[in-house]
Amino acid sequence: MSESVYICPIGFAPGPQHNDGAAIQLAGSMVYASRFACVVRQDGRVTARHLFGMREAEEAFTQLGGELETEARGQWANLQKVHAPLELGERTIRLDQPQVMGILNVTPDSFSDGGEFLEKPDVGRAHASAMLEAGASIIDIGGESTRPGAAATWEGDEKDRVLPAVEYCASMGAAITVDTRRAGVLEAALAAGAHAANDVSAMRYDPRTAELVAGARCPVILMHAPGSGEDLHEGGTYTDVVFDVFDFLYEVRSNAIAAGIAEDKIILDPGIGFGKSLAENLALLNALPLFHALGSPILLGVSRKRMIGALSNEAAAHERLGGSIALATLGMNAGVHILRVHDVAETVQARNAWRGMRDAALTDFAHLPPL
To answer: Which residue out of 41, 161, 276, 340 is catalytically annotated?
Structure first.
C-alpha cells in the first residue's frame, strides 16, 4: 500500500494585504495564494481532501503524521521557495516575473512555421533578432518536430539544422536553450554557444544526457511526456492526469539530482499536448499552481497548440493567437516562471499589462475606505 500527499494552492489574492496578511508569495512569483487543499492518494486513488488557510497549515500537516507530514511540509516550503535567477551565458534571467521564451523551429515539418526558418537562414536570423528586440529573454532552438506522428530525426540532420541557428543567435548575445533529446546534439550545441537543454523526454530517451548536463553544469528543462522512445505521445493513460504528471516530474527531478545536476539548474514542464486529451490538458492547466510544490521553476508551453484549435472551431495553427494569449495569462496567474511562445511581441505586451496590474494590486488596497 502506497500513500502520497499533494499540497495544492486553490485560492488566490491580488496581494497579501487583501487577505489580512494570510497569503504566501507563490514560488517567488507575483502571485499570492491564500487557500490550499491537502490531498492524500492511496494506490492512485484519492482517499482524503482537507482544505485550509495559511494560518491553519501547521495543524493540517500535524494531522497527517509520519512520512506524509514530512512530505507535506517539504511541499509547503517549496510553494514559498524563491528561485535563483538563471545564468545563461552573459545574461541573467530573473524569475520574479514571467519570462518569455521565443521559439525558433529549424525543422521541415513542425506544426507551426515548419520549414520557414530552416530553408531560409536569413529569415531565421531576422526572426530571432525580432524576438529578442520584442522582449524575449531566451531563444529556444529546435531541430526535430515533436508533433504527433512526426518522423524521428537522424542526429546528424538535427545537428545540421540546429548548429547554424545556435551560432547566429549566439552572435546576437542571446540566451539560448536547445530543444533536443539527443546528447550528441546538445553537446555540439553547447560547444557552439548554447546555454541550456530543453529535453522533452526528461532525459529518458538518451541515457548520456544526464551525465552531459551534470558535467556542463547547465540548466535543463524536464518535460512530461508518456513515451520514452521515438513516439513521445505513446502510452498516455492516466489514473488522474494531474497527480500522475506531478509524480512523474517528482521522479525525473529526483533522478536528475541523483545524477549530479544541481537543484537550481532544473526547470519543469507539465508537457501540455504530449500524449494527453483535451480534457486532460485542461485539467493540467487548471492545476498549474500545484506544480510549484515540486520545488523547481515551471515552464509552460501551450502556444498555438492543438487544444486551442479544438476549442475554437478548428482554427489553424497561425490563427490561434487569442487562445495562446489567454492560456499564457492563465499561466501567469498560476505563477509560471517561463512562457514558451511563438508570438513574442504580443505575449510580452500581455505580460507587461499583467505585471502592471499586479504591481498596482500591491498598493491600491490602501486607498479603500477604512472599515
So the answer is: 340
Q: What is the 3-state secondary structure (H, E, C) of 226-245?
A: CCCCCCCCCCCCCCCHHHHH
pTM for this one?
0.94
Answer yes or no: 340 catalytic: yes
- The DSSP string of 173-213 is T--EEEE-S-HHHHHHHHHHT--EEEETTTT-S-TTHHHHH
Please write the tens of the pLDDT for every residue from 218-266: 999 999 999 877 888 888 899 999 999 999 999 999 999 999 999 999 9
Known active-site residue 358: no
Identify the burial level of 67 via C-beta atoms within 10 angstroms of its C-beta, where 0-12 means exposed, 13-18 middle and 19 or more buried. Answer: exposed
How far apart CA 30 and CA 24 sit, in angstroms, is 10
Task: Let me know how long the chain is.
Answer: 371
81, 305, 320, 358: the active-site residue: 305
pLDDT, tens digit, 9 for 90 and up, residues 139-179: 999 999 877 766 778 899 999 999 999 999 999 999 999 99
Phi, psi of 206 (to 5 degrees): -120, 110
- DSSP letter, residue 82: P
Q: Which of 71, 78, 104 is nearest to 5 (CA)?
A: 71
Q: Characterize 248-281 residue by residue with b for buried, 16 or more Cβ atoms within 10 angstroms of its Cβ, and e for exposed.
A: bbbebbeebeeeebeeebbbbbbbbbbbbeeebb
